[in-house]
Amino acid sequence: MKSIIKIGLFLLVGFTLVLNAGAQRTGKKRGNTTTQPNTNPNQQQNTNNNQQPSGYNPYGNIPIVVDSSGLADSVVKKSLRNDNATDKSSVMERTPLPYEHLRWDDALFSEKVWREIDLREKMNQVFRYEDHDDNGSQIFVEMLLKAIKSGDITAFGDDRFTTPVSMAEIEQLTTGSADTVAQTDPSDPSKVIRYVVTRASFNPKSVAKIRIKEEWIFDKEASRMFVRILGIAPLKTEYFPNGQERPNSSAMFWVYYPDLRPMLAKYEVYNAKNMGMGRMTWEELFESRMFSSYIIKSTFDNPGNKQIRQYVKDPILALIEGDNIKEKIFNYEQDLWSY
Predict the structure, then answer these.
(1) How are beta strands 224-236 and 250-251 bridged, if at all?
(2) How far, in Å, CA of 108 to CA of 110, rounded?
(3) Which residues make Cβ contacts (< 8 Å) with residue 285, sequence separation at least 6?
């Protein structure tokens, strides 16, 4: 009988201890919940909804306005009437003449040349002609950007056309980064009315130089010298802290000129005189070489593959060295003839 009473007391004490331990664990959990409240309203919203709703605004209910007034207008506004006294409907149907086939075995002379076209020179002012036609802006740089955005041509990051450049990278080069500015209430400066996101503007006239890559070939079958433009690149003008222009500007992107020819055949070049010849196309301008330029690099007697300014520091002497290269190419063709 005594043993039964001892067993009963032992079971009663053990059951009491189990109940006390469970109560203590419950009290600790409740204490954590009450002593650490959630002070983050966004975290509480995520806990309740498990995900952020669509159109989530990190600034709360304050509106965000994007100001793109500084960007170049890429929308082509066509005239609703014939804006010319003559019928120019066939302008957009023009195609460039195909190149004459050149065999490598017939090339007695083949050298590549890099040139720079300074758009600030009087002869090159047509590259900056500010006007709009049914095919868009007539500024040459905007023509390039329009062709890239439409997908007609591909932009590359080097002059060998090995690395395509995405449209996002080009927009970053031309528009820059966005700047967010808070507008406050005039009566209460501590109250924010809205946030204005201003995108950096791009002025196509800020491009002061264009670089072209070409190849000079003497074909023994035709007994003449051919020049073929291979690529065109607008240059990003850079300045020293004192405001002086840096001598070696970097290329923003490269475009393959043969891919660009069909587009250039549909754009007309501004002609200040407009007598007899009328207006030529951009493709005719480049093929006729009616622009002013200077040589900055060539493969002619250049085993180090360097630009002229890398081994000729004086800018005047560098221009003279470019003229010497041009004269060597000219004399090679002339020396093949006997009079």
Answers:
(1) antiparallel
(2) 7
(3) 126, 269, 291
